[in-house]
Amino acid sequence: MTAHIPKAELHCHIEGAAEPELVLRLARKYSLDMSGIIKDGRYVWSDFTSFLNCYDQASGVFREPEDYRLLAYDYYSRLADQNAIYGEVFASPDHAGLMGISYTELIGAIADGIEDAKADHGIEGRILVTCVRHLGPESAEQVAEQLAANPHPLVTGFGMAGDERAFEVADFANAFAIASDAGMGLTAHAGELRGPQSVRDVIDILGATRIGHGVRSVEDPLLLERLREEGIVLEVCAGSNVALNIYPGFDSHPLAEFLDAGIACTLNSDDPPYFYTSLAREYEIAQKHFGLHDHDLIACTRTALDAAFVDEKTRSRLLKQLADTA
Ligand SMILES: Nc1ncnc2[nH]cnc12
Ligand SMILES: [Zn+2]
């Protein structure tokens, strides 16, 4: 049981947070057939590539800004129910753009959902705009340029998701430079499908201070030392890693090794209904499979707040809220 532990999430894709029920409801609204990707109320996929295809198809039901507002409100309300005080979501203008939703409509709608959830549940949220790696560097640069041209108080970071096997990290240096110049915090998926060099590259070439997943860093002791020394934060998503068979089970997952090595780790759900998880389940996995005690789980929440892409006043308030309630 972790209901009493205050939580924070740094790594969740807003499109990937869509419950099948919500996707089916919107599919009915737009007369779309989801029977190929949702069966018996669950998403159907078998490997990383089919997961991404399933994800893309389900994301196609968000066709009006109000659909994204509803999605964000639903996710943040669920998060608050799990005793989370803070959450960051990745938002993909590429996915929204395919459905005719502009960058500013997308951000405005998600921000409205976050503000509505804050008004109802007190939870704080921020948006990290993400590019999609397998769509290539030009799309990534366009996304970064839109971000730079349309500042929004809740947009505080830039990330890269998608298929890590596509292109090379250096191809995205320009996109990350644009986002960095716009004052964004930087994170990138790495060390999920590729090994330690991929993690080194996103730190050295993109300037990422946080790594999405980063779990395969465990294959290189020198990199582990570097992550610890430089305070690079791992956005660990153990349920996702096991569901996608990056590791066959929690027994072989490196979370405990990272913590023992003094590396800053946070606990995250990634794409909760796709991986049969939630933020609360990730805290429970950490407790049950990796032996974390209450104070270790609270430390993960503190690490997330320390690494959150928020202004210092908000960070102080959240840290105080954690100290007062933990
Ligand atoms: N686990 C993951 N890895 C890469 N891209 C993603 N997009 C959504 N979830 C992802
Ligand atoms: Zn992810």
List keywords for this structure.
binds adenine; two-stranded antiparallel ribbon; binds zinc ion; 10 strands; 15% strand; 326 residues; 8-stranded parallel beta sheet; TIM Barrel; alpha/beta
Describe, in plain words, how this protein is organized in 3D.
InterPro entries: A_deaminase_dom, ADE, Ado/ade_deaminase, Metal_Hydrolase. Belongs to the metallo-dependent hydrolases superfamily. Adenosine and AMP deaminases family. Adenine deaminase type 2 subfamily. There is one protein chain. By secondary structure, this protein is of the alpha/beta class. It has a single domain, classed as Metal-dependent hydrolases (TIM Barrel). The model has no long low-confidence stretch (mean pLDDT 98). The chain has helices spanning 20-29, 48-59, 65-81, 93-98, 103-121, 137-149, 173-181, 196-204, 221-230, 238-243, 255-260, 279-290, 294-307, 312-325; strands at 7-9, 38-39, 42-43, 84-91, 124-132, 155-161, 185-190, 210-213, 233-236, 264-267. The protein has an 8-stranded parallel beta sheet with strand order 1-4-5-6-7-8-9-10, sandwiched between helices. It has a two-stranded antiparallel sheet with strand order 2-3. The chain has 14 helices and 10 strands. The site of adenine has 10 residues, from loops.
